[in-house]
From TrEMBL, chains A, B:
A Pfam family annotated for this UniProt entry: MDD_C
Root EC class: lyase
Pathway(s) of this molecule: Steroid biosynthesis; cholesterol biosynthesis
Protein name: Diphosphomevalonate decarboxylase
Species this chain originates from: Dermatophagoides pteronyssinus (European house dust mite)
Taxonomic path: Eukaryota, Metazoa, Ecdysozoa, Arthropoda, Chelicerata
Length: 390, 390
């Protein structure tokens, strides 16, 4: 009988992954780069128990049982670990696993939970079976959900597209401590529309967008090289520029898809325009935005600029009940912050009164996955009988 | 003393013009194709008087005097005609012109009025000076506003990019009578935002979009060839597909621009999605959308499908005062039209109650510019003293 509980982080890409060269192995068309967010504020937690007392493999996700055999990607991750375990502690056929997983953020937030979820699952499984090579863990996580391979490392991470299962893995660009001033504000949009799933969307883009191949072959590598250089030099100005350009081009590819895919709505665009207005007003890149397959804006900035951004966003997006937009995570004092008259005028004629944002998650870069415990303790999501605690 | 009054049509591109090879001569990056709309519903009207009794050239546009010398493009059109007139009736230095121009649609409609306006001005000027070659008139109109060169012909028109002033001209693909079933519904969006001007926008795209060159060099010619073939075969299915793809790609280029340019808002996208839903439901392309440098949707369809489209759009976009959305132009009986249950359900959960559309202009393809009169009559916008009538 073995038991392990692990935690893994969310990541937010600054150079976007969109499109696969190999649908089965999840080999992407191009490299991508992301920041790993601190697990203090956003993370997945997974407990896995392994015993000959269990009669079958079972899994629960956010308190709902998931039929493992119905999920091809889940099966593939588990089967790969079973094979790898042959050269470590082994997986006797009379032993089964129980998996219990949850996110500390509402799925309704529209944040990609699959990256943190699969990173956590594969990390915990590998650690359980004493498979410790992060390259192997990263490639396994990729089989679950492409961008999960990046959540295996902290700081800023690059997923090398590669050409097969072994070569398509993430590697760390810098640790979270090497650029400690970086902050991320996730603006969670109040939108009930169901977005096109990224798996389906990127397939459709590959099949129908005349521009996607040009992006993958001619633009993204240049973006990756430029942003890596900017990261190495802690050049936020350039980092921000490339991040915005790459996000915009990813959404351009979505629009070039047929039928067109659209993730950014009027609320998303009002944040885009606000950021460009502020950058223009200040004469340098105070912040940059990036959008994944949904309307939420992720803003990267340096810590000294968080207060003016929060104050501006709160003033732009007012709550109908008169309260201020909630900030979850790292809090800042904004009372002393003065909004420039031009910025104030800009916001006043564009402000939105309709509860367009739910809240802002204010966070920083963080580490890769970690083990919380190796026993049935308060961290563990499973009881000793192999069933979820609640 | 000579006097002429002419009318010229609006055109709506199905293959988009975006970006210039030569800013000065307005030579576009790529060919473009448009439908010329009937002047019954949308047109520019211009009267030009020519006499030695006038002490200077003067112009009025929609009842406001325009300083000709402040408008480089206007000066260029007039100077070119002056030179061409040397080989026709001549333009003695003691003769001056008076121009009075107006549109029969509100500028607030957000429809590109410059194409009709410059087409009308150049057509009237040329006719006044007995310059009759439509190739010359088309290239002159292009110097005023690129897409104006297409408004010199009726039906469906292709602007050949060319490489210099003489070769960059429009030519007719088919006349309006060769595909009489074509209808155009212009959905005028209620939006007070000031859009990025297309002149500035396309410059910025050329300077910053990594994708625009690929579009211009590799995609647009293919779109032009495919849609020309579809037009020749009266194949609306294919015509609609290419029209939507080209509009989407044009807006993708706008998003790939830095800072990104965005013309389509949530209202525009709700029309995009409605059209795709209807096409999907019916199993063929009932209609297609195309968007210029603004949020208004232009829908191309065949006449038999106008009623279902109008009924669907009216149900989707409700007026807050309970009245039905106004249709200007060709009217249709829609009482007998049944909306399929699936379409009805689709609309009901997405319908917008906020007066998002102002009205719909319902029109067809029409002819090129025409002379209304050669004398001071009721059509003439000028009095005999060379001043506007009102």
């Amino acid at each position: 009988m073995k038991i392990i509980t692990a935690q893994a982080p969310v990541n937010i890409a600054v150079i976007k992954y969109w499109g696969k060269k190999d649908e089965n192995l999840i080999i992407p068309l191009n490299d991508s780069i992301s920041g790993t967010l601190s697990m203090e504020h956003l993370c997945a937690t997974t407990s896995i128990a392994f015993s000959n007392e269990f009669d079958s493999n079972r899994m629960w996700l956010n308190n709902v049982e998931v039929k493992i055999e119905d999920n091809k990607r889940l099966v593939r991750c588990i089967e790969n670990v079973r094979k790898l375990a042959e050269s470590t502690i082994g997986w006797p056929s009379d032993h089964h696993i129980r998996i219990c997983s949850k996110n500390n953020f509402p799925t309704a937030a529209g944040l990609a939970s699959s990256a943190a979820g699969y990173a956590c699952l594969c990390y915990a499984l590998c650690k359980l079976f004493e498979i410790n090579d992060p390259k192997i863990i990263s490639s396994l996580a990729r089989l679950g959900s492409g961008s999960a391979c990046r959540s295996i490392y902290g700081g800023i991470v690059r997923w090398i597209a590669g050409y097969d299962h072994q070569t398509s893995i993430a590697r760390q660009v810098i640790t979270e401590n090497e650029w400690p001033e970086i902050r991320i504000l996730v603006c969670v949009v109040n939108d009930h529309r169901k977005d096109t799933s990224s798996t389906f969307g990127m397939q459709l883009s590959c099949q129908t967008s005349p521009l996607i191949k040009y992006r993958a072959e001619h633009v993204v590598l240049e973006h990756c090289d430029q942003i890596t250089k900017a990261i190495m030099e802690r050049n936020f100005e350039k980092f921000a520029e490339i991040t915005m350009k790459d996000s915009n081009q990813f959404h351009a590819i979505c629009q070039d898809t047929y039928p067109p895919i659209r993730y950014m709505n009027d609320i998303s665009w009002s944040i885009v325009n606000l950021i460009h207005f502020i950058n223009n007003l200040f004469g340098y890149n105070v912040a940059c935005y990036t959008f994944d397959a949904g309307p939420n804006a992720c803003i990267y900035c340096l810590d000294n600029n968080v207060p003016i951004l929060i104050k501006s966003i709160r003033r732009m997006f007012q709550k109908s009940d008169g309260t201020e937009l909630a900030i979850n995570g790292i809090t800042y004092q904004t009372d002393q912050i003065n909004i420039d008259q031009k910025l104030s005028d800009y916001i006043d004629i564009r402000k939105r009164m309709g509860d367009d944002l739910k809240y802002i998650i204010s966070t920083r870069l963080g580490s890769g996955p970690k083990i919380l415990s190796n026993q049935y303790d308060s961290n563990c999501l499973l009881s000793a009988n192999g069933l979820p605690k609640n």
